[in-house]
């Protein structure tokens, strides 16, 4: 097909040059004839024939030019497929019920959407090129939110948003990188008054010195290429990656660790996580500070975890078992009540951002970025008290 186009272009160029030379010759003859005396016989018929030849050449050049332009335009439509962008046009409407439609697709209310966009737009907006216009930053941000909220595949989103497949892939990566760089401070333990508020709330539930709850979940992936697949084969018979999350009483995520294969036990994930290394060095929120009990005894800060994990100085687990006495039963009930915030966090993550319900492509670098970006968006929604309607 490319050879045929090159041949057609060459033929068109040769014909055009020939016709230009012919037109130049015809105009020269016309000028010479105009300079001659008008009394000569047969001059009018000669001028008429020369004019017809010139007009015929010009019409032939116009026809060949239109054929060539049509051919090039057809090739362009294959290179850049024209799309209507119907969903994106609907999301740009404002007022009335359009606010609910916008939040149903993007999960964020429009004021919060615009606030986040103002911070990340300078970092995701590309420059104008000679051959095409860049994708607007607002459209890239909305595309990333819609895919993570609906859990659809890339090819299901490109036509409705008026974007190409490559543009959607780059948009998701760019948005995730900028969110982590600009709002990554949201994924850390609180300090100052916010930390004290968390300690006070959990203390009223019977756990003074507790700064949060920790648990683990699995993100299912396709069989990794070029790696040992059995390492990612978990107890449910699927390929997955383990995610460690720490949250507070308001389901605000404080720490995230992604990347261990699905066959690794949760206690092993804890030992290799940065949180464990920091606590062992005596740093971080669990390695510094403490609380004074009513009897005058001082205890360090700690996290709540479920049964089956090691009892560390900064990890408190339930007693469990069938031989518990009354005091241990009360302790376990209080532990379950305080630790349930992490379960609510996981439920809200999968309810709002449904992208991680389905099986992911086994690209660990992109998977970590996307999960951390979703946790950042989750914290922003918690901070602004955003209620999501399914």
From TrEMBL:
<feature type="domain" description="DDE Tnp4">
    <location>
        <begin position="214"/>
        <end position="379"/>
    </location>
</feature>
<dbReference type="GO" id="GO:0005634">
    <property type="term" value="C:nucleus"/>
</dbReference>
<dbReference type="GO" id="GO:0016787">
    <property type="term" value="F:hydrolase activity"/>
</dbReference>
<comment type="similarity">
    <text>Belongs to the HARBI1 family.</text>
</comment>
<dbReference type="InterPro" id="IPR027806">
    <property type="entry name" value="HARBI1_dom"/>
</dbReference>
<dbReference type="Pfam" id="PF13359">
    <property type="entry name" value="DDE_Tnp_4"/>
</dbReference>
<keyword id="KW-0539">Nucleus</keyword>
<protein>
    <recommendedName>
        <fullName>DDE Tnp4 domain-containing protein</fullName>
    </recommendedName>
</protein>
<keyword id="KW-0378">Hydrolase</keyword>
<keyword id="KW-0732">Signal</keyword>
<dbReference type="InterPro" id="IPR045249">
    <property type="entry name" value="HARBI1-like"/>
</dbReference>
<keyword id="KW-0479">Metal-binding</keyword>
<feature type="signal peptide">
    <location>
        <begin position="1"/>
        <end position="26"/>
    </location>
</feature>
<dbReference type="GO" id="GO:0004518">
    <property type="term" value="F:nuclease activity"/>
</dbReference>
<dbReference type="GO" id="GO:0046872">
    <property type="term" value="F:metal ion binding"/>
</dbReference>
<keyword id="KW-0540">Nuclease</keyword>
